[in-house]
Write a structure and sequence with these properties.
By secondary structure, this protein is mainly alpha-helical. 77% of the residues lie in helices and 0% in strands. The chain has one domain. The chain starts with a helix and ends in a 5-residue tail after the last helix.
Length: 209
């Protein structure tokens, strides 16, 4: 694809990806609750979800989502319900699993598979990436180059930026752990982050095509 097209796509992607959303909040929570390794698993799950959504957009389902109110609503409701579920789970039980202390920090256990799946579901149940891929990809395609090749270039660029963004947020959160070495701050953190998940889920219901 043309260099100026790619640079334009790069700018749009960076601005879209780095703005706070459910995936970023999940990365922060995994970093605070576990460690950066958990953020890696979650981030890989997230970018796999993005890759699948980009394939869906490429093979025309994105058009179906844009034209079918029923299909769009189904996907939107599934994504909203999942985010609300995560939020309630964080508010009700998250802080009980997360006891920060310098002496036992290395003893915290988690399932890499569950962390990976949660990151995947946060991406895969969100209709916004499909709408982004469907609407944005055509704007930067060049008729002088292979559409398939350009698709993979833009998709892997989006995935790479997403991974770097999530890991960066996770790293920043890791260094902020010192603020949460008491139960009250920890409980407040989980209530606030859980409430944000719930609000994101509710907000997703108001997404328009």
């Amino acid at each position: 694809m043309d260099l100026h097209n790619y640079l334009g796509y790069l700018i749009v992607s960076v601005l879209t990806i780095t703005s706070p959303g459910a995936a970023i909040l999940l990365a922060i929570n995994n970093s605070m609750k576990y460690d950066l390794r958990a953020v890696v698993f979650s981030s890989f799950g997230n970018i796999l979800g993005l890759f699948i959504l980009s394939l869906i957009a490429m093979f025309g389902v994105g058009i179906l989502i844009k034209t079918s109110d029923t299909f769009f609503w189904i996907l939107k409701i599934v994504g909203a319900v999942y985010l609300i579920y995560l939020g309630i789970k964080h508010m009700m039980s998250g802080h009980k699993e997360f006891h920060l202390s310098k002496s036992c920090e290395h003893l915290r256990n988690y399932s890499p598979k569950k962390v990976f799946v949660k990151g995947f579901l946060v991406a895969a149940t969100n209709p916004k990436p499909i709408l982004f891929f469907t609407a944005i990809f055509p704007l930067f395609l060049s008729q002088n180059h292979s559409v398939v090749l350009q698709f993979f270039i833009m998709t892997f660029t989006f995935m790479a930026i997403s991974f770097i963004s999530l890991m960066s947020y996770g790293l920043i959160s890791k260094h902020a752990k010192a603020w949460f070495f008491d139960d009250k701050s920890l409980e407040l953190f989980y209530k606030i982050s859980g409430a944000i998940f719930v609000l994101m889920g509710i907000g997703m219901l108001f997404i328009k095509k």
